[in-house]
Amino acid sequence: MKLLMVGAGLSGAVIARRLAEAGHRATVIDARPHIAGNCHTERDPETGVLVHVYGPHIFHTDDAEVWDYVTRFETFRPYKNRVKTTARGEVFSLPINLHTINQFYRKTLRPDEARAFIAAQADTSITDPQSFEEQALRFVGPDLYEAFFKGYTEKQWGCHPSALPASILKRLPVRFNYDDNYFFHRFQGMPETGYTAMVARILDHPNIDVHLDTPYAPGMADRYGHVFWSGPLDGYFGYDLGRLGYRTLDFERFTETGDWQGCAVMNYGDPEVPYTRITEHKHFAPWEDHAGTVCYREFSRACGPDDIPYYPIRLVEEKALLSDYAARAAGEEGVTFVGRLGTYRYLDMDVTIREALDTARAFLSGGVERGVAGVPG
Ligand SMILES: Cc1cc2nc3c(=O)[nH]c(=O)nc-3n(C[C@H](O)[C@H](O)[C@H](O)COP(=O)(O)OP(=O)(O)OC[C@H]3O[C@@H](n4cnc5c(N)ncnc54)[C@H](O)[C@@H]3O)c2cc1C
């Protein structure tokens, strides 16, 4: 069958490859001038540093099949994400761990002492937390909440933490040891030659052809037996019910020499600092050596019609609109909505690949998915 993938990100590439290997012909189009979607990496011409063009991407997963899949197409170098934050004139370690607690409170607590100490800070009058703010106060109390969650969250989401659901903070966001590895996952790493090189290898198959600078145009689907849509769900329907809310990011690039901040990601929790974090890209490839360095100051704001959608907002209003679009998507024949934009969810790369592999598997066994994954239609 001739198949069309709208989007050359991980979703489109992984589905195309699986189906091409099974003998189908896959055409992959992307509106952008490059493959790999938001994971795109490219060499900065001035410094030679490999830059994560749409923001920092660290690969981490517990899914052995997904890890086997990515390592088939790329060598992954061991990498631990160690994030720092600047707050109130000091640099702290994230996620909040024993070092952070001891530095913040000027103490020398051991794990059990710290656990009891933090439990004593928690606001126990909150029995059924409804908002992100209440959940944070119940877990860590006002001091850590104000220093590490409040300002950052306001900047990231553009609203007060009392307007965000408690579900964002599912577990106690504190470690009572000195482990500062941001992720718990068994497999973690960085692609040696970058995500775009990896996606290029995934797409390199005689049954796949790729067309860049090619936005989907009405009528294109007529020439194909099935479409896998990884563009925006509301975009497929011409936004006719309204736009699903997203946050977008602006990156202010600057270059320096040497090592500018000493780590890959430095968060800024204070509300007076307008950006959320600074990424210094050379630290994602510590095995490379460059005299220059490239940094991105990252600003978050509401996404307008001409901006790149990054993070789905998914508050009450968006959820209602989402279920309207999902109901329409369920009625569309010959189209499967996939990926972070097609299903309007934040998806890490490993989950994106897992879902793409499952979608391809279902298609090959004749069970084409209808509607939008994870959304009642
Ligand atoms: C700032 C940021 C940081 C992240 N960091 C991490 C991380 O550290 N670790 C992690 O695991 N994940 C991370 N992610 C998530 C990761 O980016 C996604 O999992 C991944 O990009 C999803 O791939 P996708 O193919 O579904 O979507 P995308 O990468 O968005 O690809 C969709 C593609 O479709 C194209 N397209 C859209 N509409 C059309 C159209 N009408 N016609 C033609 N083409 C179209 C777009 O141009 C795009 O290239 C991060 C995401 C963001 C936003």
TrEMBL record:
GO molecular function: flavin adenine dinucleotide binding; UDP-galactopyranose mutase activity
Gene3D superfamilies: NAD(P)-binding Rossmann-like Domain (3.40.50.720)
GO cellular component: cytosol
SUPFAM superfamilies: FAD-linked reductases, C-terminal domain (SSF54373), Nucleotide-binding domain (SSF51971)
Pfam family, one: NAD_binding_8
Taxonomic superkingdom: Bacteria
Domain UDP-galactopyranose mutase C-terminal residues, every copy: 147-346
InterPro entries associated with the record: UDP-GalPyranose_mutase_C
PANTHER family: UDP-GALACTOPYRANOSE MUTASE
Name of the featured protein: UDP-galactopyranose mutase
